[in-house]
Amino acid sequence: MESLEQDLHSIDILFRKLDKRAEKLYDFVYYYHKYMMIPRDYGTGDHLTAPLAHILTTIEEHPGLTITELAAQRNRTTSALSQAVKSLEKAGYIYKQTEGNNKKNLLLFVTEKGKHISQAHKIFDINDITSTTSELLKHCSVEELDTFYHVLTVYLNLLTK
């Protein structure tokens, strides 16, 4: 009985130690997701969330992409991308076009309005990333930031296996 209590105590200590670190990651994911889902005006008067803006930019940079290709590039399901594409099309940012006689294969293109928003989004992101990096460099070295992004890459590889 005493051994079991010691084991439970050891487990509690180990859990608290590991959980303290993990909670930082959980909090980061929570707040970053919340930040990404805020509809923003990228300088055009239109409001889009960051995921929609990035999808729009991917279509702008790869005209004629199919939803399947877009899903592969953005690491999302075709179902999730279909919903995003519907939203972007409804707002007048993109349009679909069939490929030749193949009515099933829909190609995606940006409208002029979509191209304008995509370009504004790129400028916004450059400024935002530069500003964030400047703030981080007040507390972290360049090497620490490089390590952070390296760890993120490795972690993403673990999650996507």
What characteristics describe this protein?
70% helix; 4 strands; single chain; 161 residues; 12% strand; two-stranded antiparallel ribbon; elongated; mainly alpha; two-stranded antiparallel sheet
What does this structure look like?
By secondary structure, the protein is mostly helical. Helices cover 70% and strands 12% of the residues. The strands form two sheets. A two-stranded antiparallel ribbon has the order 1-2. Strands 3-4 form a two-stranded antiparallel sheet. A hairpin with a 5-residue loop joins β1 (40-41) and β2. α2 crosses α5 (112-137) and α3 crosses α4 (78-90). The protein is elongated, with a radius of gyration of 22 Å.
Tell me the layout of helices and strands.
Layout lengths: L1 H35 L3 E2 L5 E2 L1 H12 L5 H8 L3 H13 L3 E6 L2 E9 L1 H26 L4 H18 L2
Antiparallel strand pairs: 1-2, 3-4
Helix pairs in contact: 2-5, 3-4
Q: What percent of residues adopt helix (DSSP H or I)?
A: 55-70%
Measure the end-to-end span: 42 Å
The tally of beta strands, per DSSP, is: 4
Number of helices: 6
Structural class given helices, strands, pairing? mainly alpha
The backbone outline, from C-alpha atoms, is elongated
Low-confidence stretches: none
* Largest sheet report: 2 strands, antiparallel
What fraction strand? 5-15%
What would the average pLDDT be, to the nearest integer? Answer: 92
**Over all CA atoms, what is the radius of gyration?**
22 Å
> What is the succession of H and E elements?
HEEHHHEEHH
* Spatial sequence of strands, sheet with the most strands: 1-2
